[in-house]
Specification:
By secondary structure, this protein is α/β, with parallel strands linked by helices. It has 14 helices and 17 strands. The chain folds into 2 domains: about 160 residues, Phosphoglycerate kinase, N-terminal domain (Rossmann fold), CATH 3.40.50; about 210 residues, Rossmann fold (3-Layer(aba) Sandwich). Helices cover about 35% and strands about 15% of the residues. The strands form 4 sheets. A 6-stranded parallel sheet has the order 5-6-4-1-7-8, with helices on both faces. A 6-stranded parallel sheet has the order 11-10-9-15-16-17, with helices on both faces.
Length: about 400
């Protein structure tokens, strides 16, 4: 029984639901280039309509910083949202509070969907201002948060509304919380974490939180170079935070104390430059030429990492193993991702992944739909992995 209320608990017929979703989608020349977040909002909208609710959709778009910026209007999202709902009409209000919003809400009938203008056109949204929150709350009877991606922000629409209206988790929020809970809060062991990315400095809190919770920690990307340097290996022209060598050694020592095995590559793919078609070779980490840079984990290392996945029951993945954006430096990430997908298909592994680069890498490997759960949340997923309390989640808790 979750500590938060879900859609199953809502008596929605005839009531106006303020539904916070994340429609902050990438756009180019006024057209949506990736509709994933729109599509993920649809199940909750459909469920509420099926219950006879009037659904008022709230979202931000971009960073207008409290000003009305025409190119950051949510108006262009109306058509793709309608399309995702099978062509059912979606109305639009030119503001999210005040007379225009109130008139649009007042005209709604059961089953209608209304999208309000960008919340961040008002400074009160990000400030979680009481007057702005009250003006939003005035529009509805019930608040549903389905935007885990913004749950790390204590804004009016992510935290404030829960203090004014009965608050519930939407289907996407519920799925996210359940997946994350299974991955780290009450996981089947052994647990393996894959953590990649350019810099150790951006993931110190994450590593500190993971060490007591996981049995294996596979470190990839530029982060791995910092650890190799800390172990005394020459890393040539590789991206590495050489000034964090002492920090890396402390992490290794803490891992030993916590019973966590850190897995670093023993061979690597090197090249003279990070460019498509650049000549590359596989070398041991003990023999990286001084004029070359490490751009991927080598095949021997990836095979060893795959064996670790096979020994594990739960996988949490954040960050690629190498510079996956350019072939052939994507090989390590693609290979390990496909191993994780195969084990997930077999029911042998619960696999949860998240973070912008991670999602892009899994899509590139054509396995994003084969993981147990892939979170589209960037900052919120990272802060959850760091063990932080997310204001948008805490606001939903019944016992708060």
């Amino acid at each position: 029984m979750p500590a938060y209320r879900t859609l199953e608990d809502i008596d929605a017929r005839g009531r106006t639901i303020l539904l916070r979703v994340d429609l902050n989608v990438p756009m180019k020349d006024g057209a949506v280039t990736d509709a994933t977040r729109i599509e993920r909002a649809v199940p909750t909208i459909r469920a509420l309509r099926g219950k006879g609710a009037k659904v008022v959709v709230l979202s931000h778009f971009g960073r207008p910083k409290g000003a009305r910026v025409p190119e950051m209007s949510l108006a262009p999202i109306v058509a793709p949202l309608s399309g995702a709902l099978g062509g059912d009409p979606v109305s639009f209000a030119e503001d999210c509070i005040g007379e225009k919003a109130e008139m649009a809400v007042g005209a709604m009938k059961e089953g209608d969907v209304l999208l309000l203008e960008n919340l961040r056109f008002h400074a009160g949204e990000e400030k979680n201002a009481e007057d702005f929150t009250a003006a939003l709350a005035k529009l509805g009877d019930v608040y549903v948060n389905d935007a885990f991606a913004t749950a790390h922000r204590a804004h009016a629409s992510t935290e404030g509304l829960a203090r004014h209206l009965p608050a519930y988790a939407g289907l996407l929020m519920q799925a996210e919380l359940e997946a994350l809970g299974q991955a780290l809060e009450a996981p089947k062991r052994p647990v393996v974490a894959v953590v990649g990315g350019a810099k150790v400095s951006t993931k110190l809190e994450l590593l500190g939180n993971l060490l007591p919770k996981v049995d294996y920690l596979i470190i990839g990307g530029g982060m791995a170079n910092t650890f190799l340097h800390a172990q005394g290996h020459e890393v040539g022209k590789s991206l590495a935070e050489r000034d964090l060598a002492d920090t890396a050694r402390k992490i290794i020592t803490k891992a030993e104390q916590e019973g966590c095995t850190i897995c670093l590559q023993t061979d690597c793919v090197v090249a003279g430059e990070f460019a498509a078609g650049a000549p590359s070779e596989v070398v041991p980490v003990t023999a990286v030429p001084e004029d070359k840079m490490i751009l991927d984990a080598g095949p021997e290392s990836v095979a060893r990492f795959a064996d670790v996945l096979r020994e594990s029951e739960t996988l949490v993945w954040n960050g690629p193993l190498g510079a996956f954006e350019i072939t052939p430096f994507d090989a390590g990430t693609v290979s390990l991702a496909r191993t994780a997908a195969e084990l997930t298909d077999q029911g042998a592994l619960l696999s949860v992944a998240g973070g912008g680069d991670t999602v892009a890498a899994l899509v590139h490997a054509k396995v994003a739909d084969r993981f147990s759960y892939v979170s589209t949340a960037g900052g919120a997923f990272l802060e959850w992995m760091e063990g932080k309390t997310l204001p948008g989640v805490a606001a939903l808790m019944v016992s708060r």
